[in-house]
From TrEMBL:
Signal peptide: 1-21
PANTHER family: PELA
InterPro entries xrefs: Aldolase_TIM, GH
Name assigned to this protein: Glycoside-hydrolase family GH114 TIM-barrel domain-containing protein
Keywords: Signal
Gene3D superfamilies given in the database record: Aldolase class I
Length: 406
């Protein structure tokens, strides 16, 4: 296993992970800490198994992971989980050091997709290399201080009171909380990006910008940072094709992820009336990589003939076509959905997602759900896709919130 620097490792230990904002299941009773699974390990194992299968089927298969930044590097939650499982340190020598990069996981992925590097409240506002350098330097300083007995948190936590006015006090407290969450999110992104780049993996970003001007600025910043970004002023996951042609549009043949200069993440096709209309629209584009759902509106699956058509740009040169595979969520519109299914039945439908009607949080530890994912992956490779993009990977954070270790 690769290890990150000691300051970085210490920072990971002292920083709590921000949980996902989703409702808890009704009447939920958390298990004791000793019975809590290591959800990050479960999620990694599923990705490793499916990715290994895809690469066994097709040696040059491209594997990307959207989100899941905590899966790359051992952080505070997994260190705390080990303490809960082994409070007396009986197997202490077998524990991976904090800050270790999970090499078996890194080995099977070809790139990392990060949301909102440039158009979000979590944007760095500076060159990525500078953000990484600043974080490393601060972690080094914090480690030196701790060695001298000075305990300063990695994320600044100003202490109140700030005003004698209760409204102002609440406003300021909320502002500080937002800023702390932003810094923490940036830290986790930096650690993952740093580890991925050290391993030679491509970095992608998906930007939902407010205006075309913001999207143009995001593209320029991404070029500076060597990030392969898709930035649009419309929500990029709704399935609307951009109105403008892609930056760095080219006629070069694309046979590997290292040659890619543009990409189109079309994660659903709800705006198209039919599968044929959807495929025809995609055929008219010149993106180097096209990422698509495997089925139009969740139930009308793309055929091998459809995928063969998509493997060429409008200019005529070959490109890569990847299938999106949601891991931690599913919907009642999917082709495999059965009558009578709902939250808890079957058990892998762990809870409804209150933000999206008809969507459910899935339990990746459940053998039946893992088997279903395996069937989908088999279908993806049988259909002729060039690889897989794992999506909905961050749900382990929600399970961790449900199952605290303290």
């Amino acid at each position: 296993m690769t290890r990150l620097s000691a300051p970085l490792a210490l920072a990971l230990l002292l920083t709590a992970t921000q949980a996902m904002a989703m409702d808890k299941p009704r009447d939920w009773i958390p298990p004791p800490a000793s019975a809590v699974p290591n959800h990050r390990e479960v999620w990694r194992d599923v990705i490793i198994e499916i990715a290994s299968y895809a690469k066994a089927r097709k040696k040059e298969a491209v594997i990307l992971v959207k989100g899941g930044v905590e899966l790359l590097v051992k952080g505070e939650r997994e260190a705390a989980w080990e303490e809960a499982q082994d409070p007396y340190g009986t197997n202490f020598e077998k524990r991976l050091p904090l800050g270790t990069v999970y090499r078996p996981y890194m080995k099977v992925i070809d790139g990392l997709v990060v949301d909102g590097l440039y158009c979000s409240t979590f944007a760095f506002g500076k060159p990525l290399a500078e953000a990484i350098k600043d974080r490393r330097e601060l972690d080094r300083v914090l480690a030196e201080e701790r060695a001298r007995g000075i305990q300063r948190p990695p994320v600044p936590q100003p202490l109140g009171p700030f005003s004698i006015d209760p409204k102002e006090e609440l406003r300021r407290a909320a502002e500080i909380k937002r800023e702390s969450e932003k810094i923490e999110r940036q830290r986790r992104m930096i650690y993952a990006i740093d580890a991925a780049r050290d391993a030679g993996r491509r970095l992608f970003s998906l930007e939902d910008c407010k205006t075309p001007k913001d999207a143009d600025a995001a593209m320029r910043a991404a070029d500076r940072d060597r990030v392969l970004t898709f930035a649009d002023a419309d929500n990029p996951t709704t399935g609307h094709l951009p109105k403008t042609r892609p930056n760095h549009e080219n006629a070069e043949p694309i046979r590997s992820v290292s040659a890619v200069r543009t990409w189109l993440p079309m994660l659903n096709a709800d705006s198209f009336a039919s599968r044929a209309e959807w495929v025809m629209a995609l055929q008219k584009t010149n993106y180097d990589i096209v990422v698509v759902d495997v089925a139009h509106r969740g139930w009308d699956g793309l055929t091998p003939a459809d995928i063969a058509k998509l493997k060429f740009k409008a200019l005529g040169s070959p490109r890569l076509v990847l299938a999106a595979l949601p891991l931690g969520k599913t919907q009642d519109s999917r082709w495999y959905w059965q009558k009578g299914w709902g939250a808890g039945s079957p058990p892998f439908l762990f809870a409804p997602d209150s933000d999206v009607p008809g969507q459910f949080i899935t339990d990746l530890a459940n053998p039946e759900w893992k088997a279903q994912l395996g069937k989908i992956a088999t279908g993806i490779m049988d259909a002729g896709f060039d690889g897989i993009v794992f999506t909905e990977t961050d749900t382990y954070l929600w399970f961790e919130e449900l199952m605290p270790l303290d």
